[in-house]
Automatic annotation (TrEMBL):
One of its GO terms (molecular function) is DNA binding. Gene3D superfamilies: lambda repressor-like DNA-binding domains. It comes from Paraburkholderia polaris. Transmembrane segments: none annotated. The lineage of its organism: Bacteria, Pseudomonadati, Pseudomonadota, Betaproteobacteria, Burkholderiales. This is Helix-turn-helix domain-containing protein. SMART domains: HTH_XRE. Residues 84-94 have a biased composition (Basic and acidic residues).
Length: 126
């Protein structure tokens, strides 16, 4: 049965193209010819060309090997390290956290701010 691939979102395609371009520039800075780089990755020159164009159908493992050969594999450790959204979602589920009431009877009667305190008038004020 042939494999089918779903086309990624346009923003993801843009990111993949940018990654491919960065890998190509890193290879060129190291003066690695395509033949040698492809050989070190264990892929064909055609696959390397597709990788450097950011083809989303290239396996993630191939991108990882490319980063490793270029000495950039430590950069992958930074991806999703600080999951800010995930932490916020997790914090909302912690015990003792008060959840806002929205669908409770009488919630509309609760005022957002307490009424201002009245001060006594002195002889010079009206």
């Amino acid at each position: 049965m042939p494999r089918t691939f779903q086309r990624p979102f346009p923003s993801v395609e843009k990111q993949m193209r940018a990654l491919g371009e960065r890998l190509k520039l890193a290879r060129l800075r190291r003066e690695l010819p395509t033949v040698l780089f492809a050989e070190r990755l264990g892929i064909s020159r055609d696959t390397l060309s597709r990788l450097e164009k950011g083809d989303p159908n290239i396996a993630l493992g191939t991108y990882m090997r490319a980063l490793r050969v270029l000495g950039l594999d430590k950069d992958m450790d930074a991806i999703a390290r600080d999951d800010e959204l995930g932490r916020k979602l997790q914090d909302r589920k912690l015990p003792g956290q008060r959840k806002p009431r929205t669908n409770t009877p009488g919630a509309a009667l609760i005022k957002a701010e307490p009424p201002a305190k009245k001060t006594k008038k002195t002889d010079g004020q009206q």
